[in-house]
Amino acid sequence: MDALILRFDAPLMSFGGVMVDQHNVTDRFPGLSLFAGLLANALGWQHRDGERIGQLQERLLAASRWDIPGEAIIDYHTVDLGQPKMREKGWTTRGEPEHRDGGPDAKFGTHQRYRHYWANGVLTSALALTAAEQAPTLDDLEAALRRPARPLFLGRKTCLPSAPILIGRQAGDDVLSILQGVPRAVCPQRLDLKPMPARWSAYLGQADEAQIHPIYDQRDWKNQWHAGSRQVAEGLLPEVNACT
Questions:
Q1: What's the CATH code of the domain at 227?
Q2: Domain residues for 42?
Q3: Strand partners, 236
Q4: Is the residue at 64 inside a domain?
Q5: 201 lies in some domain
Q6: Of 33, 64, 100, 209, which has the maximum CB count within 10 A?
Q7: Could you tell me if residue 133 is inside a domain?
Q8: Cβ atoms 89, 97 nearer than 8 A
Q9: 3-state secondary structure string, 17-83?
Q10: How many domains does the chain have?
Q11: pLDDT tens digits for range 154-196
């Protein structure tokens, strides 16, 4: 199996999750929907290409680890829907203002949002495909990540990478074994680093029952909502001897 090696190195990242009230939460690791959206953006696909983005998502195999764990932070936002510009015609693509159903507070009140991020972390992923001969191939994805059709971001458009996302390509038995062979982003000889938190598909093994749980990281791209779950394992990966 061949896999692309991706490295997420950015001041802020957000991996999505099940939204709770006003909290736009972030998962601990990037999910299949994030990888699918990232690759679709690099390929120049658009939202109307939901069917083929979904097909790409179904083919993805991924394992990820934190080389340097990010710090959880929350960004607080407010929006005053009672402002004249929010009540009048013209500011939406259809020329009519949009408001929630309900009373005046819901329609025109001040709404609060709490957006969750990982700050100052470095995460490495191994990403492979099933049906390797089907388009887009791994070669197509590699080329798109080297010369993306549009600027890439890590979860939200404000989360811009500080270094190229694609750092290489490696072969191995599966994405977990490939990831375990990728050198850590920093040398452990220079820093007091702990074992690396990681997530991989549960069917790959190397985990006990207590480490396995379901996640909801798949998206219905045609209807634009999250749907589908899978079993993953989370644990600590040992240090890799070499350094980059």
A1: 3.30.70.2660
A2: 2-11+27-68+122-237
A3: 197
A4: yes
A5: yes
A6: 64
A7: yes
A8: yes
A9: CCCECCEECCCCCCCHHHHHHHHHHHHCCCHHHHHHHHHHHHHEEEEEEEEECCEEEEEEEEEECCC
A10: 1
A11: 999 899 999 999 999 999 999 999 999 999 987 655 556 778 9
Amino acid in the structure at residue 117:
Y
Strand, coil or helix: what is 140? Answer: helix
Q: Which residue has the tokens 């693509």?
A: 93
Give 157's DSSP letter.
T
Residue 79: the pLDDT is: 76
* Cα–Cα distance measured from residue 17 to residue 29, given in angstroms and rounded to the nearest whole number: 10
Within a domain: 16:
no
Residue labelled with tokens 């020329």: 95
Closest by Cα among 10, 7, 12 to 24: 12
Q: CA-CA distances (angstroms) from residue 73 to 15, 67, 216?
A: 13, 18, 22
Q: What are the E-state strand segments in the chain?
A: 2-13, 23-24, 60-68, 71-80, 110-129, 166-171, 196-201, 212-215, 219-220, 225-226, 230-237
**Mean pLDDT of successive 10-residue segments in the chain (244 residues)?**
97 81 80 96 92 95 96 86 66 59 64 88 97 95 97 93 96 96 76 84 83 90 80 88 54
Whole-model pTM: value is 0.84
Q: Which amino acid is located at 63 in the chain? A: A
CB 172 within 8 A of CB 58: no
pLDDT at 18: 65
